[in-house]
Amino acid sequence: MNTLLFFDINGTLIKRDERTDLPYSNAVNAFLGTENAMKGVDTSARSDKDVFMEVLKRHKMDFNQRKWEEFLILYTSELKRFAGTDVWRTNADAVPFVRALHDAGYTMALISGELSIGAEFKLKKIGIWNCFQAGGFGEDGLKRFDIADSALSRVMAMNNLPFDSIYVIGDTVLDIQTARHLGAKSIAITTGSHSRVKLLSEEPDYCIDMFSELKDLLLSE
Ligand SMILES: [Mg+2]
């Protein structure tokens, strides 16, 4: 078997609700000295770095590397603070399914707008961080396709053989478009930001409500 599986994080592996992004919004508020800097900002399927730049713009501030590094220090301390809480929980049956895929020998990687530090905290919390060989993250690009290109080139550099098939699994139409961008098959899951109707309008190869629906496709011997 030589299949590569890419996973999105929020709304796919991690259940997304109003608390999921508290460490990020707290860090942005702390950085700006405000209470609700994220109000009206759509973060769904976007790069965390792109979102940070938009928030600065809304506050008439220019982005620079020093500000970014300052923000990362605040964000990391918020992530540490929330690591002991229940803000990050598994989405649907993601954890047992990802572990089963890992045990079955699949190469798995991440494509997410989440920063790598946030991805690590979240996926360590639900116990599947070590199932993923590599990833493309929010600091690798402002747009999803650039992040996906980084993820794919990292995985290719770590594996000698080309892959027979590649899948991208995610909860938004952007994940389906990303699959198409990479020449991969798309698996849309209805547990996140976008409804089944919206996902189907982008014509994914598969559309599921639970990971166990992929058993026949990926785990049948
Ligand atoms: Mg998502």
Total domains, how many?
2
Strand content: 5-15%
Q: Using only CA atoms, what is the Rg? A: 17 Å
Tally of DSSP β-strands: 6
Identify the CATH homologous superfamily of the largest domain. Answer: HAD superfamily/HAD-like
For the sheet with most strands, the description reads:
6 strands, parallel
Strand order of the largest sheet: 3-2-1-4-5-6
The percent range for helix content is 40-55%
Bound molecules: magnesium ion
Order of helices and strands: EHHHHEHEHEHEHEH
- Count of helix runs: 9
For this structure, what is the CATH class of the largest domain? Alpha Beta
CATH topology of the largest domain: Rossmann fold
Average pLDDT across residues?
95
Bulk shape: globular
* Structural class by sheet pairing and helices: alpha/beta
Written account of the structure:
With 221 residues, this protein is α/β, with parallel strands linked by helices. The protein folds into two domains: 3-17 and 89-218, Rossmann fold (3-Layer(aba) Sandwich); 22-82. It has nine helices and six strands. It has helices at 22-32, 48-58, 65-82, 94-103, 116-125, 144-158, 173-182, 196-201, 215-218, and strands at 3-7, 107-111, 134-136, 165-170, 185-189, 206-208. It has a six-stranded parallel beta sheet with strand order 3-2-1-4-5-6. Strand 2, helix 5 and strand 3 (134-136) form a beta-alpha-beta unit. Bound molecules: magnesium ion. The site of magnesium ion (MG) has 9 residues, from loops. Magnesium ion binds next to loops.
